[in-house]
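G., the chain you wanted modeled:
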Amino acid sequence: MRPTQPLYRRLRRLALTTKQVNGGFYKGTGSGSMGRHTKHGDYVIEWHKVRTYVVPKELKDFKLTPFVTRNMEPLKGNFEGDKKGGLSGQRYLNLWKTENGVD
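Predicted structure as tokens:
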């Protein structure tokens, strides 16, 4: 079965995929390189290739709004009675035992 001529023309306008062309076609991600590989297997960053973004000086008068509200307060975990807070290994083990029920 072959597609009709109008359908075939419409298919030709779509972007190529790696399955439609020979093995040498590499589409990539559009990210670009920020450096180069050395012969020893290291990666050297070339700083003239690194992207830099300029932030406006006066953000209060800036017309575009951020994705996150500026009025949000940081959330803090509740670790009462634990000196190490959220980093306590004993707290993690107790939580694991209550959720899984296996000792």
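The helical segments are 5-12, 89-100.

Shout if anything looks off.
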